[in-house]
Amino acid sequence: MTKSNTQPSPVQRLRVLFALVLVLFVSACSTIRLTYNNGDTLLYWWINAYVDLDSAQSDFVKADIDRFFIWHRQTQLPDYVSLLQRSKQQLQGNVTPQVLDGIMREVRTRGERLALHAVPQLAELARSLKPQQIANMESKFAKNNRDYRRKFMSGDAEKRRKIRYKKTMEQLNLWFGRFSNQQEDAIRRLSDARPLDQEAWLQERMRRQRTIVELVRRVQSQKLDKAATAAAIEAAIRATFTRLDSPERRAAYEAQTRFYNDVIHLTTPEQKAHAQRRMQGWIDEMNILAREKQK
Fold first, then answer.
1. Which of 59, 144, 223, 259 is the most buried (most CB within 10 A)?
2. Prediction pTM value
3. Cα-atom radius of gyration of the chain, to the nearest Å?
C-alpha cells in the first residue's frame, strides 16, 4: 500500500484509518460510500501532493493503492463493522473513561495493522524517492505546520480555547445533534478546563516528521535494500504507536478521554439515541461497502 506516501507513514496511517472508518466521524452517512469508493484517487492525490511522483512511481503507486483497497474492502471493512457494533452496545450502557479507552485502543490497533500491512509498498516508494522529492516532502510538512499554527495557535490563551471549543462542538453536533445553551455552557467549561496542548501536539507531529525525513534520507544515503528499508519503516511505525503510551502522551490522552466521558454524561436520552442512529447508519454503510465489488 504505497499509499500513504512513505512520508507520513505512522500517524498518517491513523489518518487513513480515519479516512476509512473514522471518516465516519467527520462525514454524513450519505457520503461514506462516495468517499470510500473514490478513496484510491483521493489517496493518490494526497501522496502526490507530498512528493510530486514521477511517471514510473505513479504507475506502481496506483497499482499498490488498488491492491490495498481490495485487501481493505475484503478483510478490514467487516472487522470495522464488528468494532462499530460492539462500540454501539458499549455506549448504550454505563459509559466510563475505561470504556472509551477500550474503544480507542481497538481503533489504534487497527491503525497499526493498516500501517504494517503497507510496509513492503512503503519500502518500495521510499527507495524510489529522489532528493528533490524529499525536499518537496519537507516543504509540505513545513507548510502544514505553518497552517496549523495560523489556525489553532494564533492569539492569546483565551482565543485558542475558543477555537478548540468551536472545533469540538462541530464534532459533538455531528454525533449528538443540537445542544441546549445550558449544555453548551457546561461543555465550554469542561473544554476550557483541559490543558492547552496545541503546542505539545505540534511538537509531537514535528518529531514524527523529522523521523520520516531522516528515515528516507538514510535509505537514500546508505542505499538500503528493500528488506532493510522495510525493517526501518516497520520499526518507525511500531515506535510511533508505542509512544502513544509514553507518560507525556498518556496524560494528554487521559484528559481528553475524561472530557468526552463527561460530555456523554451531559447528553439527554434523545441525544444518545441520535448517536446510536448515526452509528447504525455507519454500520449499514460499511456492510454495503464490504459487499460491493472493487470498481
1. 259
2. 0.84
3. 20
